[in-house]
């Protein structure tokens, strides 16, 4: 079966009426703030990803009939400079091959796909076509496809789901396939992946003789939902649901699998199945635990299944997990997972700033999860958080020009945390690349009779609702300015509800429809204003959000932030950098009484709004006598200037600090 | 040559008149605060050290004619509980033998020696005698003595001074030998070590055919000075000077030695000879760098040589290094060496509290260094620091009952840093043991016509000056009280100068001699009051030091202490513990306006003065909505109670904090 044979099956058959699905990327044209970001990815990042992946020329040497582990070339070969910046253990000559390289290809193809839609790039398209051709050659007659297992560990497929990323890789190739199909209309990879998924569905599931397993690194679940939506194939959706439902059931699949391999399940490197959120069935989970990216991908898949099946048992679990994450385990930037040890969560309220892991992928994963919670209906609880992670902890991972990356996103730096060209575990660059390149799909949610506007910004969306084509044009300088004008242009009058998010950070919002004020109190629900009417050509909605500057304080149980304050304006979290302020940022105090002012700086960092204030600073003079003394330090005035967190480390390297001392 | 043959040679021949040498331990009887500490060591620690060392029975199996590496038993075998508390890599069955075990025996013998003087313990004395007998059997005909090189690496002696602690072990056995001789009058080990040192002097030195090396871990230098002082043998002093002078000279001995072993000097694990302070000649060093204990031992040896040879070039270098340590690289507790990585120094002003390494041995080493700086004359600059390290960062390493130990001495704990019974690198227990047991020798410095009183506390000292025997009796409840009464009891009238330290932490001091007030301004020099007179039986000096409570602030360049305040009273630094205060100590603020009061608590922690104040605390109520909000946290009153830092973790495990938030 190919995609074309089964298109649209699921929209006819399954899912509750109120499910809000994202618009496909090609249906939203992005300008303004996000337009610049997408252009950076389309013009720089997409090619960089391909070049870095292909440096290994792993795929070019494939001879599917003759597995040849001896000739594998490392997937990526950093320059000596980069190697040095990434720690001594990583040298150009000793990079090891990685079992999850197909996933990096999947995300690279996905980024390329969205970028090709944005900006024609014949050279890149030819190269991606060639990669797809090679995957086609690699695929085995029964549909199986894994460059690791076919070339490095032949004969061992499906023997270690816990550790070896086999279904995870399939998931990313599926996402790449769907994106490439949507962006280019080419279905070769989609057909390859459908054949592979058919094989997976024959191998796993509730039926007799099938394996009862699931992947140690979640991803296949949300990918199968995407594939089901793109192909209309209910079987794929059901397989996604199976993987979600089966996770953490007893007897534990990973135990049995380990014993089948002849190893002791207790010898598991990460000690606890919390690492992969398989410590208990998903509906019984109430704490976000383990590897942060895995958690986000699982919860994303769960949210999709909750949406598609109207499954409230999943929704209840997801709300508990959401509470746990957002009230105890979340950086103010939308970063998550403080520890490098498990790339994930530690203890409640443990949020170290300088050593924050806060992997770019984890924040991207939070965007995925939050966006999928919106599938169950517009709710600012999720959309505000999606916006927080989008504008801060995720895009901080990509330099403004699209060429350099962060893996960790700390909230404090002494000057040595700088962007790199690549990483020994290159998951983040293609992840932030594909997220940015597909940003249009996060703007809107479409149900049978409603459109939810989750994000604001200069853009044009096209969609069908109640059988009518509608164009929706946002004009705005968001996030620098809170004035948003929305023109609704249906081909013919059509009734539907327009849901408009009123962000919780905005202290005042004003809404008019065709110039007539709307009393927000009468139309608000879950943080969205709902306007139901018959929309006609030329209808115009104006929303004015007060883009206020806020001082933010952390729950006092967060010991690392006690006595500190962070600055925000609209959805943006700010930080101070050494280049704008004298060094030793720890000495700065922002008094409660200090006035904080916003300044539009057109020529700074691609055009940003900066914040300034007169703070104070401990003086370092007169300390000759020793390190400690009974006289408190004198203080002096300190002008401070803050820039959006996402834009840090795009100039001279230096110290950075989000949480200023509160005075 | 044995000790008896050459006694007193050096006091007749060498050294400047103004050298102040410590009194031997048996000449000072200690009561009061330090008496309790010494009793804990004599009644518990000394036996524990022996038992732990002998668990290995390494020495009992020695057959010096037949090196038998196969039968070596680990030097120490922790219980599973201890192993668990010390990290996963340390299990009872996989402890590796260690090349520096002779040093642990040396320090154990030294602790036992001082303890035997304090308190008769026939069983322990018999056991130590047996250990000494075994060392006698092990010693080779040419005098060489090393259980590691004789049993584990036969034939490789003197091939890796950089890494293998060979002279370091000799040094600690020398210190043990001197102590055992002084405490028991038994000279067997002293004679063994003299024979060994004669061999070392034949092997190393400026003469033709001798090796131009020195030890990677300093210790032999200060040990040789002790041996020279105990035996009067100038040759030992000169060898100490040679090791000091030779250090860091080019061509670099460690380079040449590595090449002679057939290894690349650049392959050195620690990358830089700063690790062992051999990166440049000692007189050219101006930064404290590398391994903190090594640095302290080197500087101690340098100070001894500066004292004995009147060498101002060394003194100038030592003062530079002292400045660097005390104005940029010192915890307020007298702890040093923030990093576990090199067990030593990092960057100026880098003093993390929770992750502070601040090894017990390093603080003990600072006591050693400071006390030896006093050899060049009384100077409160050094004595105040010696007192700081003594009362805080060093004895924090020993539980009040003498049975449990800290290796690291952080200034903040979340509750998981607790005392252990032993350690895989057991250097600290015998080091703090021997320092405490020999505390009397740190109280006084004796020159030809002066006695300096460096430390205060209930005690009796006996010494000869200008041919007269003198007894000096201190009566005091120091450090809990600042009133000190000193009776001077010469056998006959004798003129000498009595130097009395006026600690810099005391804001007011009053001094009387036989009831007559002394105008301190007229007698002060380098922080000491100097009283020269003919002392007669019954003379009495009264010193009253204001035991004031102080708030201490760190240089603002120490980012970890910015906006924080520490409490001190007299020489003691205080901390708050969870058991006396509610948890989440980070939430406490001590307002500048809060009155801090002292309370003598006879039944707490063996009798201490606690401090109390009414502080404030961020409330954790009303944070249901999320981790971050625009309303600052409400504050509530918080009664806080602080205990001396050295006494922490002697009750229920819990959080601990030295640096409180300053409000």
End-to-end gap of chain A:
66 Å
The total of helices of chain A stands at 19
Largest interface: which pair? A-B, 40 and 40 residues
Which descriptor suits the 3D outline of chain A?
Answer: globular
**Oligomerization:** homodimer
* Rg of Cα set of chain A: 25 Å
Share of helical residues of chain A: 25-40%
Protein name (chains A, B): Glycoside hydrolase family 127 protein
InterPro entries (chains A, B): 6-hairpin_glycosidase_sf (IPR008928), Beta-AFase-like (IPR049174), Beta-AFase-like_GH127_C (IPR049049), Beta-AFase-like_GH127_cat (IPR012878), Beta-AFase-like_GH127_middle (IPR049046)
Pfam families (chains A, B): Beta-AFase-like_GH127_cat, Glyco_hydro127C, Glyco_hydro127M
GO biological process, one term (chains A, B): carbohydrate metabolic process
């Amino acid at each position: 079966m190919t995609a074309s044979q089964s298109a649209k099956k699921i929209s006819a058959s399954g899912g509750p009426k109120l499910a809000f699905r994202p618009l496909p990327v090609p249906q939203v044209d992005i300008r303004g703030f996000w337009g610049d970001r997408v252009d950076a990815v389309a013009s720089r990042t997409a090619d960089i990803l391909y070049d870095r992946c292909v440096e290994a020329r792993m795929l070019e040497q494939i001879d599917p009939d003759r597995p040849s582990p001896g000739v594998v070339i490392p997937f990526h070969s950093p320059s000596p400079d980069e190697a040095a910046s990434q720690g001594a253990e990583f040298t150009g000559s000793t990079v090891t091959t990685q079992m999850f390289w197909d996933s990096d290809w999947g995300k690279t193809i996905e980024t390329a796909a969205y970028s090709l839609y944005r900006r024609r790039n014949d050279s890149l398209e030819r190269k991606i076509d060639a990669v797809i051709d090679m995957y086609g050659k690699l695929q085995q007659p029964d549909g199986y496809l894994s460059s690791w297992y076919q070339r490095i560990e032949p004969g061992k497929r499906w023997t270690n789901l816990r550790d070896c990323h086999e279904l995870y890789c399939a998931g990313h190739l599926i996402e790449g396939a769907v994106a490439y199909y949507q962006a280019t209309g080419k279905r070769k990879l989609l057909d390859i992946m459908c054949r592979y998924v058919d094989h997976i569905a024959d191998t796993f599931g509730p039926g007799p003789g099938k394996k009862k397993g699931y992947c140690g690194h979640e991803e296949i679940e949300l990918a199968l939902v995407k594939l089901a939506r793109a192909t209309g194939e209910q079987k794929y959706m059901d397989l996604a649901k199976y993987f979600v439902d089966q996770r953490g059931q007893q007897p534990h699949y990973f135990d049995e699998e380990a014993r089948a391999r002849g190893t002791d399940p207790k010898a598991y490197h990460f000690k606890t199945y919390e690492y992969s959120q398989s410590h208990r069935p998903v509906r019984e989970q109430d704490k976000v635990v383990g590897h942060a990216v895995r958690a986000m991908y699982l919860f994303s898949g769960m949210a999709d299944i909750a949406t598609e099946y109207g499954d409230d048992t999943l929704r209840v679990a997801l709300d508990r997990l959401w509470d746990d994450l957002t009230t105890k385990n979340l950086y103010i930037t939308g970063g998550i997972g403080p520890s490098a040890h498990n790339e994930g969560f530690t203890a409640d309220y443990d949020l170290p700033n300088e050593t924050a892991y806060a992997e770019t992928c984890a924040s991207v994963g939070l965007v995925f999860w939050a966006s999928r919670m919106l599938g169950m209906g517009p709710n600012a609880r999720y959309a505000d958080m999606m916006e927080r992670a989008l504008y801060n902890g995720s895009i901080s991972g990509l330099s403004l020009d699209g060429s350099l990356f962060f893996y960790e996103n700390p909230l404090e730096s002494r000057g040595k945390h700088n962007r790199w060209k690549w990483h020994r575990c290159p998951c983040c660059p293609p992840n932030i690349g594909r997220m940015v390149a597909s940003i249009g799909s996060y703007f809107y949610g479409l149900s049978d009779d409603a459109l939810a506007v989750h994000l604001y910004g200069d853009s044009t969306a096209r969609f069908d609702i109640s059988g009518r084509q509608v164009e929706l044009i946002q004009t705005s300088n968001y996030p620098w300015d809170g004035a948003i004008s929305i023109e609704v242009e249906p081909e013919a009058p059509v009734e539907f509800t327009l849901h408009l998010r009123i962000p919780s950070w905005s202290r005042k919002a004003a809404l008019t429809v065709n110039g007539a004020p709307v009393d927000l109190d009468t139309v608000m629900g879950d943080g969205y204003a709902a306007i139901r009417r018959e929309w006609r050509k030329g209808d115009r909605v104006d929303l004015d959000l007060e883009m206020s500057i806020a001082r933010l304080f952390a729950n006092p149980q967060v010991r690392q932030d006690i006595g500190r304050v962070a600055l925000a304006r609209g959805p943006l979290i700010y930080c101070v950098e050494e280049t704008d302020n004298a060094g030793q940022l720890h000495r700065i105090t922002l008094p409660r009484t200090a006035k904080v002012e916003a300044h539009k700086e057109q020529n700074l960092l691609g055009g940003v709004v900066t914040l300034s204030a007169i703070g104070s600073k401990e003086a370092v003079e007169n300390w000759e006598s020793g390190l400690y003394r009974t006289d408190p330090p004198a203080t002096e005035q300190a002008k401070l200037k803050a820039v959006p967190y996402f834009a840090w480390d795009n100039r001279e390297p230096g110290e950075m600090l989000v949480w200023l001392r509160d005075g």
